Amino acid sequence: MTASTPMSFEEQGVTLIALQAIYSALVREFVIDAAPCPVDESFSPSQESVEDANVWFQQVDSQIQVHQLRQFLQTTPLANEVVLRHLLVHHMQKASKSASDRDKTDFLLVQYFSLCAPSGLEDTDLDLEYVAQVLEPVLGPVDTKLPDWLASLETVMQSAARCKRLSELLHSGILEQGRKLKTQNAARYFEPAAMVAFARFSFMVRRIFFRLMHDDLNAIQDGLRDLERRKIETIDCRRAQFSADEPISRLRMICQSWKVMFHAEYSSGQPLRMLVDLRAAVDDALQNGGRKTPLAKGASAPGTAAGRPK
Question: Exposed end of the chain (fewer CB within 10 Å): N or C?
Fold first, then answer.
């Protein structure tokens, strides 16, 4: 069974039974207002029972945001290969697919590929044919000829690969270009060749993103150790929403906590901007011997509307 082939109600029943545990866990995790799941130990798939159960699953789907699904699946032991495959089938078999269904499918394809692909995979091995091969249990055989409307996707990915620092990736607009291409062609996203291309793109950009993020964290920690060797105990971190005399010992603990927090996150939100700004603050301190420098134009001092991090 693949997501590209129509399903009988018996096959739909198998998928719903496989998803019962993870959907019940999602309802509890995010305190979703929903009746008890109609799929239980006594569930017997029939056309009527499957239709009734689908109503419940659709109601829960409408209340789960893609960032919640991402957060949950990247931390729960329930998200194995079989469950991810059933989740993909569930979303892709919908007669009417929303933007949320598209974004969830996009994330699930990358998550499935990440789980099934070898850990030592080199970037050069990640061509469209290989990605299609890994995704075949979900999508079936796919013609990997890139559609004309996706020709720019390779250019965007190459631009991401040339980035040397996380700040360059976040400020270049590369992530936004990929999202824009996806939203502008929403009606064609669910073409098999397009899903393979976007899965490859998202996986590659996520790999680049984490590589640069860890480079920044390591550079910050190396810089803090260097400053400590110079007997410097505090540095000016106002540009990163910390204080003008932030203890280096505290910054080291924060970096350790960020390593855990960022492990499952992939976005360009406030914490990542703080990471980028903290590296710049540490670089300034290394250049200036720990002396304070004027606050960068547009940066917010602690206690302003931008807020102080926990």
Answer: C
- Angle (deg, nearest 10), helices 99-116 and 66-73: 20
Q: Which domain holds residue 30?
A: 1-97
Rounded to 5°, angle at Cα 109 from 106 and 112: 150
Helix or strand (DSSP H, E) at 53: helix 47-63
**Cα-based distances in Å from 240 to 223, 244, 265, 280:** 16, 10, 19, 9
Task: Retrieve residue 175's tokens.
Answer: 């992530």
Does 173 reside within a domain?
no
Structure tokens at 100: 């949320």
Let me know if residue 37 belongs to a domain.
yes
d(CA 170, CA 152): 19
- Contact at 8 Å (CB) between 177 and 171? no
Strand 246-247 versus strand 234-235 pairing type: antiparallel
SS3 at position 235: strand
Residue 228 lies in a domain: yes
Residue 193 belongs to some domain of the structure:
no
Q: Which residue has the tokens 């919908």?
A: 94
Nearest to 240 by CA among 219, 253, 254, 229: 254
Residue 205: enclosing H or E segment and its boundaries?
helix 192-229
Q: Length of the chain, please?
A: 310
Give 99-115 pLDDT, tens digit per residue: 999 999 999 999 999 99
- pLDDT > 70: percent of the chain: 88
Tally of structural domains, the chain? 2
Which of 97, 113, 135 is where one domain is finished? 97
Torsion of CA 187, 190, 196, 197, to 10 degrees: 0
Q: What is the 3-class SS of 98-151, one letter each residue?
A: CHHHHHHHHHHHHHHHHHHCCCCCCHHHCCHHHHHHHHHHHHCCCCCCCCHHHH
